[in-house]
């Protein structure tokens, strides 16, 4: 086994090397660009001012498949570092101009990832320890060295460097991937936010379209109700019942869908009478003949049949069929009692009878409001649901009080967003626009054009809180008891 001490020139082999080779002959001219070593082969730079030591190190590493570069001075070594890719540097401690410790410090500054190993004798131990403390070297090898130990040290150092390099690459890759992931997440969040906003906008548009469609449907039912009343001889009855029934249903806590069904059912609750002969229309029920009574008792079934074809009106059809049932079970057509009768039908029954009592449709005379209220209370627990009656009568009182806040305006002062407080009726009492209607630009334009073209001066009752500031107001309404 070869043992070598750097700087010991008396050994024959070293002498022969010194005699046949010069420093320049051992070094190839540096290329203009950084030269990569053979693929997958580590490169070790050995620096010593004695070429014999350099050759000895080269032989050791060549047998291990490790490429080597040699330099006879620190300056030459630094020059090679600028033009070659180096994995590990072995430097002798004692060199002229710049010692090994200082040289390895310069290597660290050049590239901290290069493994730095110092060849040192026992006499240089204090300098070696100082270099270690400064972080300039990773390992030191004492002279004379053992080839196997030297190879083991170099292999371990290169393995550690390779591991550190791969770790650094993985860390960098992870960093890049995290940045990409963050960018992707941010982009995804932006896309999701944009898509969510788009869907919310679409949903809003669909809701608005559905609301417009529903409003149009309700308006169509109002028109149909008005047409029925034009023939039936009881103008305004269905409208008034619908307003009372809707508010009563709200106060009794019915869901919005059920409130809507109650309102629509009240508008068309007498649709089954549309086929009555003229002799039956317009006269009180109390004056009907036996045959007329028999036909009258079928109008709820006929009304249900007329509405069943419309899927949107299934709940409405049920209310229409049951609105002449009584809580004591003596009503028609099915003799239902109490809770067997849907709440919507109990509400429409009470509201319809109250309006008919007040307007002479049930008997041959018009009853005062007080008398009509008293008669309705008298029918509690027999004809009517007591809770419905009490709520309905309170609605009547509250509506009368609220009417004091209704404001009359000229049609020329009508603006979009105003809410109609009282229904607009035709000359024959048919509903043209129902109370609660919210005016939009199209309807405002149509009403204004109608007034202008027909030469008709129109005034409308609107809710005070829907009027924009600065709108001219007419004289306050007279309130009738």
TrEMBL record:
Domain HD residue range list: 234-357
Q: Which domain of life is it from?
A: Bacteria
Can you tell me which residues the record assigns to a coiled coil?
160-187
Q: Which GO terms describe its biological process?
A: phosphorelay signal transduction system
HD-GYP domain: residues covered: 213-408
Keywords for the protein's UniProt record, in alphabetical order:
Coiled coil, Phosphoprotein
Record's protein name: Response regulator
| Origin species | Hydrogenophaga aromaticivorans
Query: What is the phylogenetic placement of the source species in the record?
Result: Bacteria, Pseudomonadati, Pseudomonadota, Betaproteobacteria, Burkholderiales
